[in-house]
């Protein structure tokens, strides 16, 4: 899924120490010129790449290896009850997820996530 916190948002710097992931950030800030646009980066132990996910962006990833050690550096603590999600394969966002040959494993909350357009505006950050 594509996750974010609203009232206690987090900026994140993410990297992989072992394995590989396809990491995605989506701008969900209302009134942003890039609302609904996404960026992605393959993060592997070999390439050492990192992705910065700013406040107001939803974050998701797809594990590309058998296992992964995925490291987050966050500027705020996780706040239970303040987590929201956007459907990982929202057609209006159009993320080009890699084809791994298998269906992704989703949590129960990710299976019922709404599209960005169906998310109530009060549940989206404002610039």
Question: Notable features of this structure?
Answer:
single chain, 127 residues, mainly beta, 3-stranded antiparallel sheet, 37% strand
Describe how the helices and strands are arranged.
Blueprint: E1 2-5, E2 12-18, E3 20-27, E4 38-44, E5 50-53, E6 57-63, E7 69-74, E8 83-86, H1 108-111
Q: How would you describe the overall organization of this protein?
A:
The chain is mainly β. The strands form 3 sheets. Strands 5-2-7 form a 3-stranded antiparallel beta sheet, with no helix packed on it.
Which strands sit side by side, in order, in the main sheet?
A: 5-2-7
Q: Label the structural class.
A: mainly beta
Strand content: 35-45%
Number of strands: 8
- Secondary-structure element pattern, one letter each: EEEEEEEEH
Produce a short descriptive summary:
This protein is 3% helix and 37% strand. The chain is mainly beta.
């Amino acid at each position: 899924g594509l996750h974010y916190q609203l009232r206690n948002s987090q900026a994140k710097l993410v990297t992989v120490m072992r394995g590989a992931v396809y990491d995605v950030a989506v701008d969900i800030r209302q009134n942003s010129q890039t609302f609904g646009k996404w960026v992605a980066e393959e993060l592997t132990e070999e390439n050492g790449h990192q992705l910065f996910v700013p406040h107001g962006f939803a974050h998701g990833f797809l594990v590309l290896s058998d296992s992964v050690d995925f490291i987050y550096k966050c500027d705020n603590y996780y706040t239970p009850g303040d987590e929201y999600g956007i459907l990982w394969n929202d057609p209006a966002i159009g993320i080009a997820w890699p084809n791994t040959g298998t269906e992704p494993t989703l949590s129960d909350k990710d299976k019922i996530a709404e599209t960005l357009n169906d998310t109530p505006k009060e549940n989206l950050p404002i610039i």
